[in-house]
Amino acid sequence: DSQLPTFTFSDMFIQISTRLASQYLYGFGETEHTKFPRDMNWHTWGMFTRDQPPGYKLNSYGFQPFYMGLEEDGNAHGVLLLNSNAMDVTFQPTPALTYRTTGGILDFYVVLGPTPELVVQEYTALVGRPVMPPYWALGFQLCRYGYENDTEIAKLVEEMKAAGIPYDVQYADIDYMERQLDFTLNPRFTGLPALINKIKEEGMRFIIILDPAISGNETDYPAFTRGLEKDVFIKWPNTSDIIYAKVWPDLPNVEVNDTLDWDTQVKLYRAHVAFPDFFRNSTTEWWMREIAEVYTNPHNASRSLKFDGLWIDMNEPSSFVNGAVGGCRNQELNFPPYVPQLGSRSEGLIFKTLCMEGQQYLPDGSPVSHYDVHNLYGWSQTKPTLDALRNLTNERGIVVTRSTYPSSGKWSGHWLGDNTAAWNQLDKSIIGTPTQPVTNLFHTGADICGFFGDSEYELCARWMQLGAFYPYSRNHNGKGSKRQDPVAWNSTFEDISRKVLNIRYTLLPYLYTLMYEANAHGSTVVRPLLHEFVEDKTTWEIHRQFLWGAALLISPVLEKGAVAVNAYLPNARWYDYHTDEYIGFRGQFRNLTSPLEHINLHIRGGYILAQQSPANTTFYSRKNPLALVVALNDSQRAEGQLYWDDGVRIGKYQDKPLIFFFLFLQDILEIKVLHHGYTDPNNLKFTQIKILGMTSNVREVTVSQNGEAIRSPHVVSYNSQKEVLEITRLELELGKDYTVQWS
């Protein structure tokens, strides 16, 4: 409804307003919010990709001009403004919304739901389904900016192994590079190639970081030389001169004094850097070659880094000088007539980024100004990075990008950026993580325990519990801060971490199935409560709890000193994950006990969850026995699904997986193979089935195939107090149909 009299259309300023159906609006980003539905009381939020740590009303790394609106009757719809120029949106209590953009066109797409979950499914059908991560990428991950050398990383790996804490992926931040130059190896990390090979032999994976900025102050730097030959760098308009800025690379032959203030360090020590134009086909070819040089190192194979994933950072693009070394040249583009609300308007559009007059070229060779495509920079880098990774490893791998745009999730995951070790970041990360699926980014999470500052014991323990349920679960912090990995504290902290990560690893078959459903159908993984209970208006504002899919409710402690959490249990039958007991209430808030070693988890009746015994890495956990947890609803019914493949293969989900459907009805559990395209080499079996909410005792259990009973050495036990039936010592082979019946 654009009848409001604000419509303006000019070359560098477009404004349009619309009335909204209700006060309940979700989405837009990437900005830090203090509540899940947006505050409609005259707040303006800018959108422009920036190297901006999360902060109130400060747009960060991504550009996501999509929102979901809830109408008063619970119907939902979504609106995308496909425009790549800087913009802001003003929320008004009418309720209404005003867009202001600095250029481009008004290209709106509307998806009609009518449920919140269907809005996301329809939106991802439009912009692209989220990428299917490899199984190992759902394991726990560790990173730190500030590792002194490869020996420190090797020691951490051994300590985690000795503590028996599940852990799949180790990272190297820019420390591994020589003077922070892409595609190089620091002399302090000469043992890194061997270390990577060793941990991969032990079932782990390794990811390295790459930044887009390439140093131009070098006499022997092949990446820059080849970039010049391929003409890949962004230039001043109508010249052959490269625009130079400053980012991480240091000057050669200079000893850095890191006790000086930041601006002085940038001035004295940072090299001039050029930015590749990733729209160009020649840049894609150059980028893929440089990545291949790191992976294979044809000049010295012993220095090759056999990484499994790539982490692309600083790709807003970020610069440590505003615009360029020596300043920008086009006042109108860098300080346009209207500067969106992005913090300080006096800084224009060039704060910590490139001059807007930078000349780029689309794949068809037509020129385009950085002013019009700035927000696409990280997006344009993402697919070439994934292509390079997959060409080298012949596996699915992961790319984790900082800067995003609609459809980035087709190729990558995303972390929420350089957060702070503070209690108020916990619930903000929950707001951020379920907001990402509204923007097609599903493999997401915040830096566990915080990036900036020293984390404290209780905060980090609670964050480990919360972070164990981020789809992308990585503990990461910054240089100069104390270590905060699980083995940096004491044995009690190790116990807390081990316990919650063992739960995560037990549930990985369920999480992997959710990732398949996201990739195939656009279903959300981390799911706000309103997506399942939209008829209950209480859920419309809840952001301190969330679901995995439809079946698992996570209610973390988010406040210092708290030993209980005030959790809302919507109108369904819920079972305590830890005790298997039906909790006996619904549709109300309750204070749930939550000592430091405990996180409240509840399974929703009506669902069947596949589980697997955990191990230190997914390489080994995938060899362990499987189990089913059948949580019965009020009608004594439940159903579920399992997606299973080799965990790494590149290809469409239809090609070679196993897909199971589970149905419990009238004392019969049916295990049906819907698609049989994969035979697991580990001879996996379902060895345990647990039925929650079984109201009558069971005398006999029969297992049959194709209507005929088979011999089974199973053992049956029934707990009448908890109403739990447990069948153990089963031998139900993965990939076969079974019927389990009792009387």
From TrEMBL:
GO biological process: carbohydrate metabolic process
Domain Glycoside hydrolase family 31 TIM barrel stretches: 130-514
Residues spanning the membrane: none
Coiled-coil boundaries: none
Keywords, alphabetical: Glycoprotein, Glycosidase, Hydrolase, Membrane, Repeat, Signal, Signal-anchor, Sulfation, Transmembrane, Transmembrane helix
Localization terms from the record: Membrane
One cellular component (GO) term of this entry: endomembrane system
Topology relative to the membrane: Single-pass membrane protein
GO molecular function: alpha-1,4-glucosidase activity; carbohydrate binding
Domain named Glycosyl hydrolase family 31 C-terminal: residues: 522-609
Superkingdom of origin organism: Eukaryota
Family the entry assigns: Belongs to the glycosyl hydrolase 31 family.
Name of the featured protein: MGA protein
